[in-house]
Here is the input.
Amino acid sequence: MAWRSGAAVVLVASSVALAGGLAGRLASAQEPAGPPPPAGGRGHAGPRYHELLPDIGRIGAQVGAAAGPSWNPYGVGTGWQVSAFIDLPLARNRAGRLSYEILLGLSGGKSSAFTITDPLAYVANLARGASPADALAGPPRAPYTVRRQVRTRLRLLEVAPFALKYTLTGLDHARLRPYVTAGLDVALTATEEVPEGSAAAATPVDAAVGEGGRPPELATRGIPGGEGNLDLGGHAGAGLEIRISRGLSLNLDYRLARVGSGHALHAASSVVGFHW
Here is the structure.
């Protein structure tokens, strides 16, 4: 019996030693090989570490609102413009980031006064027996007013459903990001000729006659007819983003938009951008 007790003791000691060795190996296998990686955004480049990383809540998207002067088509000249946009990240490389942009803009203005000639009033004066010179001169040598001073009031709605924006990130250490953008536009143009001075007090007969004819001066300026005109076009622009914080920026922006054929809208904007 003594030898059996000794064998049992030896067997128990061997089992304890084997279990201890396995536990030690498992513990060493579960220990990390080195320190944990640094959290996103702790690097020297600042905001760029947070972008395109949805797990920490920042994907590099931006929404913004802009306002500033505009230089309008159709001879309208200087006016105003406002716009809003959203940028969604597509890809990035070492030099910068490519985004998909949707833009909505509204611009307006009022031209300086110019003279228009009403062709129907001219014909009506001829029909009343006036000579060509008297028909063109209008009252008192002919019944109906042919020449009037007017101003063009313009409203132009610009919708860009597809645009690309490339932002350079090499100046992140200075909180500056230059960018360029280009896209396709749909432009809705509405114009109105507002009588100027004494022409604003036209008689009902003059107003009725004038409704039927389109003055040739409007066609010369390229002003679209009707209540509204829809055109396809495009835009290109450039700007500078100044990062105030990770979620806020102030931008300086310039945009050139082509409206129809041969007409352009220039817009200079101050922009407030919100990033997430």
